Amino acid sequence: MLRTLLRRRKRALSSADVTVADQPQVRRAVTAAALGNTMEWFDFGVYAYLAGTMGKVFFPSSSPGVQVVSTFATFAAAFLVRPLGGLVFGPLGDRIGRQKVLAATMIMMAASTFAVGFLPTYAAVGFAAPLLLLICRLVQGFSTGGEYAGATTYIAEYAPDRRRGFLGSWLDFGTFVGYALGSGLVTILTVTLGSQGLEDWGWRIPFFVAGPLGLIGLYMRLKLEETPAFKKEAAYAAAEGGGDASSTGEAPPTARGTLKEIFTKHWHAVLICMGLVLLYNVTNYMVTSYLPTYMTVTLDENDTTAQLLVLGTMLLVVLTITTVGHTSDRWGRRPVFLAGSVALIVLALPSFLLIREGGILLPAVGCAVLGLLLVCFAGTAASTLPALFPTRLRYGALSIAFNISVSLFGGTTPLFTSALVEVTGNDLVPAYYLMVAGVIGLVSTLFLHETAGKPLRGSGPMVETHGEAERLVAHSRAAAGRQARDIWIRLRHPWAHQPPGDRRD
User: Fold this and answer.
1) Which stretches does DSSP call E strand in 330-424?
2) Rounded CA gap, 325 and 79, in Å?
3) 207-224 pLDDT tens trace
4) Higher pLDDT, 14 or 109
5) Contact between 149 and 399 (Cβ < 8 Å)
6) Which of 4-8, 150-154, 286-290 has the highest mean pLDDT?
7) Nearest CA-CA partner of 74 in 308, 402, 306, 418
8) How far is CA 55 from CA 75, 189, 305, in A?
9) Which of 130, 310, 330, 390 sits a CA distance of 20 to 30 A from 269?
10) What is the chain's alpha carbon radius of gyration, rounded to the nearest angstrom?
11) Are 107 and 221 in contact (CB under 8 A)?
């Protein structure tokens, strides 16, 4: 009994255990991380809105339906190498630091997107044109493999525990701002240049814009410091090993050993992460990447009308996403994910039925419903996913789980749905696809432990002010004192806390 009681005893917090957030540094961290996502999704918005045009430029000999499938196949190819990027950048971020890896991914992402604007067309060089486009997309996918997981890890490790949901939501705020900027630019070019002008040369302009955006993001990331959680973990590892692995007689953990630990000791967290990522990204890519093409190619809507409807949906997401993040800090991550999953199962089919009606009003309502469903996941993911893993494995485990799920289910959503619609002739296939994602997300959420307001695994509490830190330490010492008193009472009078029927006379 004594052994059991002592094992359950919690050590009181000291002032060294509690980290007080540096507010200016927190703002810089959130801004720089969000800007990287803005850059990434600017490219996605451009590519989604230009899918029909890119199909004509790089796959001119195919039918319109096959052109769209070919374009989305090139889009999906980038996701096939994302797990490879996660395998490289994730463990590297756990070894050398988050900031260095995020700067490297920014360089690769900006350069590869900028290069698309210089590619020759199929009419100029034949089959080499789509091959060069594929190479650029593969580089983008490889760099993105370390981007989102690194950015969410960076913000989560800088954010105070009570505001992690709100601050994390700014990362995906950058996501949808980037998408809105990219899609908005393409919409303006479509209106001003017309379809022919866009096909002749206008499609290059959005990719040229990516260059300056990337330089700004790189400058901001180079100015960042390493996260407090990573610094403490690195100091602890150095103290344990005496600053040198040879001092312990053990080799440092290898990449293979790290992967083995992730999939043997944290497999349950990996599965939960993959399920939540599937839920978020299937909804995300359905709305952002496939919906514009669905309305123009499948439903034969006007290009400008479809683009404005989806752009309006993105603006709705941008306006509500930080509110959802703040709500998850108050109500918890699980309730938000549960509500969103159930609503997706129930409302996906009605939303697509409204979109299929044509015109402006009913499709606008359908798109708005999908946008509000999407924001339930987008506003909560960045604070939920990093909390699944301990600090020393967080970047690597999250990169691997996130990118495997995105590659298999998220980025392939436009390809699978467009191909299924082409084969079956059923234009409600996207709704059924979303409903399946909702079921998987619901099951994953049921196994999710609540993390709102709690420290990250493997890290001490993070607070906003020194006064809050002092109150937390004082409360912890008082709780430890009460627990010690209870242990003493149970040792002196073990029968005092037993049910009457179990006490000995």
Assistant:
1) none
2) 27
3) 898 888 888 888 888 888
4) 109
5) yes
6) 150-154
7) 418
8) 11, 17, 20
9) 330
10) 25
11) no
